[in-house]
Amino acid sequence: MIITKQKNFDELLRMMDGQRSVFIVGCGECATTCRTGGEKEVAEMSLKLAENGKTVTGSVVINAPCLELDTRRVLRQNKNLVDKTEVILVLACGAGVQAVAEAVECSVYPGCDSLFLGNVFRHLYFYEKCSTCGECVIGSYGGICPVTRCSKSLLNGPCGGSVKGMCEVDNKKECIWIAIYDRMKKSNSLDKLAKVLPAKNHSAGTSPGRVINGV
Ligand code: SF4
Ligand code: SF4
Question: What's the gap in Å between 144 CA and the centre of ligand 2?
Fold first, then answer.
């Protein structure tokens, strides 16, 4: 899922400077899980905007705003309210914001910052384990991704700077190379780690990404 955090409210007000009427769109999936754009956060945002002189024309929590056809359909259903508004504020990731922007003509602003593709460990604990590099290499590392989880994205062993198992770049994070070593030891595949692997093919991660008809 996409991990988001809500933008600072003053920044939102600055974006909407000179515009009075606002319609709010939330997200029933990732932003609900992150508590940045679910029903509760949309209601709180409505209240806060009203207290700051904005007219909230309406709001809706779309199941997943990144599903573009669904988003268009829901906004069409709310056309009478959307037509009365100068601004749509989207409490979702950047993909959701852009889906909304492509469905309407008024100003569309992001209410959240998108942080990373995250695994959910438990409620409100999110970890980045994959950065969607375009060519997955974790078969060589016991199923653990050094591209994302090593601060230096090292592919041929640790940098040697780890202190007491923690990363030298950020001592609040474990050195992932210890986890890679332990895991490969358990699966009797340490011999694979002895091989020097070629540099990562970064051209595989083409951006903007595009998959058409599954290809
Ligand atoms: S190697 Fe690439 S695709 Fe595989 S987990 Fe790491 S970042 Fe994701
Ligand atoms: S200490 Fe470990 S995780 Fe941190 S940069 Fe070095 S090898 Fe990577």
Answer: 14
| pLDDT for the residue 19 | 98
Q: What is the pLDDT of residue 208?
A: 75
Cβ(54)–Cβ(9) under 8 Å? Answer: no
Residue 205 covered by a domain: no
Rounded to the nearest whole angstrom, what is the distance from the C-alpha of residue 24 to the centroid of ligand 1? 34
In a domain, 189, yes or no: yes
Take atom 3 of ligand 1 and give the residue whose Cα is closest. 136
The structure's pTM equals: 0.93
In a domain, 201, yes or no: no
Could you tell me if 86 and 190 lie in one domain?
Answer: no
Long-range contacts of 194-200 (CB under 8 A, 24+ apart): 195/140, 196/156, 197/137, 197/140, 197/155, 197/156, 199/155, 200/133, 200/135, 200/137, 200/147, 200/153, 200/155
What are the structure tokens assigned to 124, written together?
Answer: 């409100």
How far out from the chain centre does Cα 165 lie?
28
The first and second tokens of residue 53, run together, are 């002189």
Mark the ranges of the chain whose per-residue pLDDT is less than 50: none
